[in-house]
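Example 3.2
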Amino acid sequence: MPKQPEDTVDTSAKTSVPEISGNEIDVTLMLRVGDGDEQAFEELIERHQGAVIGTVAKMLGNASDAEDIAQQVFIRLWKSAPRYQPTAKFTTFLFTIARNLVFNESRRRSRKKEYSMDERQDDFHLQTPDDQIASPDDEMLQNELQSAVDKAIANLPEKQRLAVILRRYEGMPYDEIGRVLELSIPAVKSQLFRARNTLRDSLQQYLDA
């Protein structure tokens, strides 16, 4: 059997390249933003603006204001970038900024009693996906149920409301929700438990249908 040359490279075994997580991408982009990289900032906006706008819209119950508040979130993100330290997931940092702005706006509206639900239907992020063609009656019932769910969520206390939105719509784990809300994991679960009981009572007529 001929001897294989020593400098021959065996390519039969492929080296697996570890997959880069979404958080690693976000952190890398944010560190570049801290150096003034506008392109990295635009990429971060593209990656997260949908989630931020959707969360703000659900929290405030008004889709028309969601983009304005979301814009403020990203402005604060830009300003805070030079001081950013990746001690937690990037989304935790981002949604903590969103929490502060939304809670401030929510309290301002509460004082003025200017809550409005009229434009909820304009927010695509609030709609329940339906791949099947529904009859007019089914569609009307679906819209009525969605509106009832939105209103029930909007009437929750702000921490319960945000916990439900982050858990249900953003799929955030308990520990990350806890960091955003500055609560322990048991406290997050308690908030969600109370919120679900309240929602169940508010939507009982639909559950019994």
